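Could someone model iron/sulfur cluster with this protein?
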Amino acid sequence: MDKYAKYIARAKELGAKDARIIPADSVITAEWVRAKCQFGCGMYGRGLTCPPSTPTPEQTGRMLKSYSHALLIHGYGMDDMNKMVPILEKEIFFDGYYKAFSMGAGPCELCEKCPESCVHPHEARPSMEGCGIDVFGTVRSHGFPIETLKTKDGKVNLYGLVLIE
Ligand code: SF4
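Reply:
Sure, complex below.
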């Protein structure tokens, strides 16, 4: 979609390795994603942008039906990705796409510990996986690379998503 092409360029300008406009209905949600957060991630229940504070896979699946297109962003740094997506969300919103909503990768690390309510509500966004999105399945279906890693030293392919309209 030509009218969204500038958001691909803008994502790259902000540090993304690549980005694509995808149909919103190609974003995959699955119940097992929540289980992977609940059993295996130390952030479960500890962050305001992590489960169970985030939309369930079912809620995200229903939410996705309100959108036709999204910007899928490929990057390498979690911090960079999580800083980038709210900027893109804001710019897309100011272009008139009033439903624009972004998701990053991994837990929010803007504060050492979350207080009762978020102190950076304009910057903090949930991760794709924290909202029940099957990131592996979704990005692979669009030709992006992602692999399971055996060690923490491997290069991590990270993804963010901005729902546009
Ligand atoms: S900005 Fe701070 S309070 Fe808000 S979700 Fe991130 S870490 Fe928690």
